[in-house]
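Archive transcription. Copying these from loose printouts into the bound notebook so they stop getting lost. Printout 1 of 2:
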Amino acid sequence: MLRLARVGRTPPELEPVALDDLVRSVLEDLETSIQDSGACIEVGTLPVVDADPAQLRLLFQNLLAKAIKFRKEGTAPSVRVRSAPVAASAAERSPSVLRVVVEDDGIGFEQEYADRIFRPFERLHGRERFEGTGIGLSICRRVMENHEGAIGAEGRPGRGARFVLSFPYTATQELP
């Protein structure tokens, strides 16, 4: 709860953040969970974004930990992190948004709950099956709002989840 409150009232201190390096660092922090679950995590080339590194660390830590945790029983999770620019319109040549996708092959969720999962303390699965506080995705949404971006979710029960992060693009950012 304290992390959610801090993210909510602390304005981001923007600096260039190499998402490749940041995600690698988060994966090092999650090494025990990765080994225990047998997770296979693929990370594509990611951009440099203007962001608060501490807030982005929380964002990716939550997303990657959830991808590992919400796996199908008896199956090693497979997680992919990749990036793709999105053009503002077909007429424009330069991108206006940088999109980063974190997707897994875990237990997924019904698409009708895609917005609900970002609310604090909303849980789609009982505590007896998956431990946690129920605020991780709320933190993710708050971080993206702090960066004038957005986060969306897509899910299919038994087929996995996909989280799409949309960062505003500036000319100083490197595209993958």
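Printout 2 of 2:
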Amino acid sequence: MSALAGAGAEALVSTDLAVGGMTCAACVGRVEKRLARIDGVTAEVNLATGRARVLHPAGVAVADLVAAVERAGYTAEPAPAGAPVTVAPEEPDDRWRLLVTALTAVPVLALSMVPSLQFTAWQWVCFALAVPVVTWGSAPFHRRAWQGLRHAAATMDTLVSLGVVASFGWSAYALLLGGAGDPGMRMPFSLTADGGGAAHVYLEAAVGVPLFVLAGRLLEGRVRRRSGSALRALAELGAKRVCLRGGGR
């Protein structure tokens, strides 16, 4: 932390916080607004690095800043100024979640979008395969969406969770009560509505959305880690010792 003094104004302190749990620009806005509620505090949050640069009066404790971020639904801890940015390592659970989601979602996507592959009672097979994707595979989205709801805020996780629940819920209704459970039902692929009503299921949306978002976030994390490693390697190339020559040169 470095003290910043302004003429005729209260001394300000710059503090870096490492913020965890952010997934989109809406998360950045929530953290910045929550910190700004403290008198005299301004903050700039970087989603890519997971860092928040907070300018606050010297009388505001760092613990108060951390508590404000946690009340917004995220984790935070002080980060030494000038310390290299580190990205959390890839969790094995994330890879397994994506792998299992892909193995169960791809058959659902194929059966739902290629009518020639649809066999007798294919929709019930898709329904059974979609259950683990909607529950376990989408659990991180549901958990973060619930946390956002508790704080009266919506993020991208809210949209993903809502889309998964809505498409799966309608499909369950169509299968059980809407006539789509007929073993001989076929659902042609179409880009326009054809008046089929409740006899249509949308399980491909219920599994496709979490599959693509999980894959995107896994790739994003890998790119961020590689970028951080490249920046640290570049910083290490800087001169460590400087020699001064006489004669003003």
